[in-house]
Design a protein that fits this description.
The protein is α/β, with parallel strands linked by helices and 273 residues long. It is built from 6 helices and 13 strands.
């Protein structure tokens, strides 16, 4: 038995389309010992969810992907949890592969908005927890439910890395499922929450936005302890560690946005950049 847990929202008008694509891929699975749990922040997806026999909850109290993922998981009645983001889907008949006594991970394939295949993402490396996310989004994992496991609702970035580190501490290294079993849609509204506000503010002017995170000079040589990671700050501190610190210990790092505009009119204020 496995619980497929889907945090959902209207996705700027794309919610029904993306969720239906995912639900259709679930219906095609030969393994049928599952339930579907949908926690919907928008309240717009109930009819579709019920059409596919899903357990549905309008989650109007908690917002953000971490909180909504936790909400979907809290609905599960089975011990094995299969998170799925609503713009991802099952690319193969593979649901049975995710049944596990601890946790499992699978390779995946990126697609563009038109459904064209971009590339396969290699199988996860077992040393993922050292410097960067080498697993992928939570749609590629399954795990056995445990009271201590929750997505950190305070984080805006690296939510998955934080959760994978919890899984590693609880269960050890994951079992790797053979094959590229999950499809991931790459589309124009996929932006980090930190960058989305800027690009939405001046969408016709922005050509590129880069985010640079650096350790503040006055803290070089200090050690930050976060989620069991002893992070020694220096000029060569890995970007992954800095991203965690940007959320949890912002006083230790500087976050700078480099905005390249297409053509900057004279009346454009420097302040909004």
């Amino acid at each position: 038995m496995i619980s497929i847990c889907i945090p959902a929202f209207d996705q700027y008008g794309y919610g029904v389309k993306h969720l239906e694509h995912l639900l259709k891929s679930i219906r095609k699975q030969s393994f049928t010992h599952y339930e579907i749990c949908i926690s919907d922040n928008s309240g717009t997806l109930k009819e579709l969810a019920l059409d596919y026999g899903a357990n549905y909850k309008y989650n109007n109290e908690k917002y953000g992907v971490s909180a909504n993922t936790n909400s979907a998981i809290s609905m599960a009645k089975y011990d094995i949890i299969k998170p799925m983001y609503m713009d991802d889907w099952f690319d193969n008949d593979c649901l049975h592969e995710f049944v596990t006594n601890n946790w499992k991970v699978s390779g995946f394939t990126n697609y563009n908005e038109n459904g064209n295949k971009l590339k396969h993402i290699p199988k996860p490396e077992t040393q993922f927890y050292s410097t960067e996310n080498r697993i992928g989004m939570p749609s590629v994992i399954s795990f056995r439910k445990h009271n201590s496991l929750k997505f950190n609702e305070e984080l805006k970035m690296v939510l998955d890395i934080d959760f994978y580190y919890q899984l590693f501490n609880l269960y050890g290294l994951p079992i790797v499922i053979d094959g590229y079993n999950i499809g991931q849609r790459l589309w124009h509204k996929q932006q980090s929450s930190l960058l989305a506000g800027i690009s939405e503010k001046i969408p016709t002017l922005v050509k590129k936005i880069n985010m640079r995170i650096t350790a503040k000079k006055q803290f070089y040589g200090n050690t930050a302890v976060l989620q069991g990671l002893n992070i020694e700050l220096s000029a060569t501190t890995p970007q992954h560690y800095l991203e965690i610190l940007a959320d949890k210990m912002p006083h230790l790092v500087d976050v700078v946005y480099d905005v390249e505009v297409k053509k900057k009119p004279e009346h454009l204020s420097e302040a909004i950049l």
